[in-house]
Amino acid sequence: MPAEVESRQKRQAAILDILQNQPVTRQTELVAILRDQGIEATQSSVSRDLKQLGVSKLDSGYAQPEAPDAQDDPALTGTSGFVRDIQTAGANLTVVKTAVGAAQRVAVYLDRSAWTEIVGTLSGDDTIFVATRSVADQRRLVAKLRIRFNA
User: Does the N-terminal or the C-terminal CB of the chain have fewer CB atoms within 10 Å?
Assistant: First the structure.
């Protein structure tokens, strides 16, 4: 993986963690927190990251995209521990790697999630292909997946 991609993924994961644990009202504040954590960031890189992650700006500060609640469907509880890796493959295909034998259960969860970004899923034993309509949808989907599955 190229260093810049790894750096961006690390920064984006840190952003999601920060937003989950404390209120942030300005991008400059987020840049300062990232730098305090030893993560290189600029206002423009943070702005791009927030857009790619689907983070919303509210009156009270930034808010992460919402993930569906698995408690709504008892058959799907406990899926968070199954996802091992999430990668993009092209402009509208996302590959989700799961524990062996878990792909179908996670794919059913995704199919029932009603996330507008998802066009469809195809699963095997430990791999799921998730199709999206656009690059923007794919970015929002990946952000939601990382939040929901802690990946």
Answer: N
Collapsing DSSP to helix, strand or coil, 105 comes out as helix
Distance separating alpha carbons of residues 28 and 14, to the nearest angstrom: 15
What is the number of helices (H) and of strands (E) in the chain?
A: 5, 6
Please tell me the pTM assigned to this model.
Answer: 0.57
Q: Which amino acid is at 9?
A: Q
Range 3-63: architecture per CATH: Orthogonal Bundle (1.10)
Class level of CATH domain 70-149: alpha beta
Band (pLDDT 50/70/90 cuts) for residue 119 is very high
Give the span between the Cα atoms of 25 and 6, in whole angstroms. 26
Ordered by start, the domain boundaries in the chain are 3-63, 70-149
